[in-house]
User: Fold Sensor domain-containing diguanylate cyclase from Massilia eurypsychrophila.
Amino acid sequence: QAKARGRNGFQFYAPSMTGEGVERLRLETMLRRSIEKDEIFLNYQPQVEVDSGRLIGVEALVRWDNPELGLVAPVRFIPLAEDTGFINQLGKWVLYESCRQMIRWQDAGLYVPKIAVNLSVKQFERGSIVCMVAEILKETGLEPHRLQLEVTESVIMNTGDALVFINDLHAIGVGLAIDDFGTGYSSLAYLKQLPVQTLKIDRSFIKDISTDSNDEAIAIAIIQLGKSLNLSVIAEGVETEDQAAFLLRHGCNQAQGYLYSRPELASVILERWR
Ligand code: C2E
Ligand code: MG
Ligand code: MG
Ligand code: MG
Assistant:
């Protein structure tokens, strides 16, 4: 379209405004209005104890349902939200809604022990994360130990003040998990210093656990590392009974994945686990 106009001698567009650029801008504009338009909601994926099937927690996963675009995957809009700064507003909304939902479930007769919420690196760069979390906990009435924040290794290793923020979060009683563990490279010495409670074995290692000896070795190593450092270890993306049996055999009794449940609406969680 811009090309056609260009042929007529009108070149108002910047050279970077390719089709992709236009599409991105459109997405950006729509994303910015998504909260006020009520298009953002959360799904919750159960985390279970493998041997008993008991519910030990849920992970909150953000969803964007736009009338024009349909359901947009987080891998598409989280990076965009990070680039535009919208992630701060979105992250706050997610945190608030997650804590509030825990109380709603409780009032309806379902006690979910813990909720895990993903944090973006940009939220750390912002600096005020600790105050925000404390304020949300106070306002919703959720006990701090029932909130677990998930960060990736790269967040920890690449954020200058991460250690300070993480220690502050620990000081107010909030839990911390390292997401997608094994895919980044955290220094083990650094890990030991952090007030982290949980390692989440990345889905990519679980996928071919029974057929790929490298993945098997990595998964076992992470489980052992957790034991040595006295951390709990949870496996992500568990889809088969074989994978669950493997985990149990090697001493990992916490899992999350389609085998147990897909991410669901709060009402579905209530119905199924109450
Ligand atoms: P994550 O935190 O590692 O979340 C786990 C992802 O694996 C989720 O994808 C979940 O739906 C998917 N999953 C769970 N079990 C299985 C399984 O058995 N098989 C397969 N194939 N997939 C499984 P989702 O919801 O698309 O989220 C993708 C990523 O987007 C998340 O990865 C997280 O990094 C990010 N994300 C999601 N919600 C938020 C949020 O509220 N804030 C931030 N900053 N990031 C978020
Ligand atoms: Mg996560
Ligand atoms: Mg993960
Ligand atoms: Mg991930």
Observations:
- The pocket of C2E (ligand 1) is lined by residues 45, 61-62, 73-75, 78, 94, 118-120, 150, 179-180, 203, 236-239, 256-258, 263 (CB under 6 Å).
- The CA atoms of residues 74 and 208 lie 24 Å apart.
- The chain is about 45% helix and 20% strand.
- The two ends are 55 Å apart (CA to CA).
